[in-house]
Amino acid sequence: MSQNFYDILGISRDSAIDDIKKAYKKAALAHHPDKGGDIERFKEVNAAAETLTDEKKRRDYDSALLRMRSRDGLRFTGDERHSSMERTRADSKPTAASRPSNSQPPAAAPRPPRPPQGAVEIPSDPSTLSVKELRELLTALNIVHEGCLEKNDFLTLLKDRKNGQSKGTPRGAGASEKPSTPRQRDNQNQPGQANRATPQASSASKGPKAIRLKVLSLGSEAVGKSCLIKRYCEGRFVTKYITTIGVDYGVKPVQVLGHNVKVNFFDTSGGDEYKDIRVEFYADTQAVVVVYDVTNQRSFSDVETWIEEANKYNCPISKLHKRGEAPFVVLLANKTDLPRRDVSREVGMDFASRHGMYYYETSAATGDAVTESLNFLFEKVIRQQDEVRRKLQIM
């Protein structure tokens, strides 16, 4: 058994279910790819939470640990519990006993300062900054970064600016430059389109890269959000219901209107216990899939609650709340393959119309309208981006 689920979450074997969920929330936010974390580590955190929050799976896992005489979950108890990241940092530091008596404790590595007003310095190692701090730094440098989804995107923009500074670009300049985000640069040099990239940009690029598209799924538990995404991405239907833990993450490369697109799916849990994690991922969303179960009137009524929550966290998905650049939204009436129906097509279409959403009836089980609805949503986003690029003359 390669997993050390208790150690991954930084908890002991006698941890209560609430302690496990708290540890998961902290670890999921620390390791989620959208927050600059490692995707493989994030998958391990999800696997640990899925096993340890299920009574039967946890019991089987504990039995396996005993047979293998594993030390997983035995390192810390009580007040000694802390996250795996904190434990790793603590293990790497020399203890007082291991240092010479006349030596001073090593000074903590200085953290790059936040960008000051006026002339803005780019830190020597910007990778130590958080995603939020990188956004602030790019804003201070007047570098357009709305197309950035991952930490590497922000770092690429800073690297480009830093290289420009080393060749004599005035520090802090950029207000008069054409906006250039990784997502915009990805669309330069597309086949059949004029190449308007600057010589510097074209020399740094070895070919067209994929546009990144952030898509968020919303809806109550068991309405089929994960099944719809899996049907779209893998062309198969999972019959066994597995509750999504926090926010699942996956990437699907697709072709949209002649562009290479990487669709970044953020599949959220509908459970209230994971709200603290879910709300961290509303920002910078470009498209939203709202799902309800046509056989469950409550799941349809709950859509109003999802609209309010999204609006509260700066992701207006109803035309009643829209301000500035709002995401495109498709409302999916799912499970239409089932014989019983509590929410009619007319009611669903009327709701979608009132809130400015596109409406489709889908079945994750049969695949009916799944690809059609999601491709339609992606095309709406890409068409809007193409129009913006035309206006900025960067196509």
Regarding quaternary structure, how should these chains be classified? single chain
Strand order across the largest sheet? 2-3-1-4-5-6
What structural class should be given to the helix and strand makeup? alpha/beta
Distance between the termini: 51 Å
Biggest sheet details: 6 strands, mixed
Order of helices and strands: HHHHHHHHHEHEEHEHHEHEH
Under CATH, the topology of the largest domain is which?
Rossmann fold
Number of E strands: 6
As a percent range, the share of helical residues equals 25-40%
- Average pLDDT works out at 77
Strand content: 5-15%
Radius of gyration: 24 Å
Low-confidence stretches: 78-101, 112-118, 166-207
CATH class of the largest domain: Alpha Beta
Number of helices: 15
Tell me the CATH superfamily of the largest domain: P-loop containing nucleotide triphosphate hydrolases
Task: Tell me what the CATH architecture of the largest domain is.
Answer: 3-Layer(aba) Sandwich
Supply the number of structural domains. 3
Characterize the overall form.
globular
Could you explain how this protein is built, in words?
This protein is of the alpha/beta class and 395 residues long. The chain folds into three domains: 5-91, Orthogonal Bundle (Helix Hairpins); 126-183, no CATH class; 211-391, P-loop containing nucleotide triphosphate hydrolases (Rossmann fold), CATH 3.40.50.300. It is built from 15 helices and six strands. It has helices at residues 5-9, 17-31, 39-52, 55-68, 84-92, 131-140, 151-166, 182-185, 199-204, 225-234, 275-278, 297-301, 303-312, 345-355, 370-392, and strands spanning 211-218, 247-256, 259-268, 287-293, 328-334, 358-361. The chain has a six-stranded mixed β-sheet, sandwiched between helices. A hairpin with a 2-residue loop joins strand 2 (247-256) and strand 3. Helix 6 (131-140) runs parallel beside helix 7 (151-166). The longest helix is centred in the last third of the chain and has 23 residues, at 370-392.
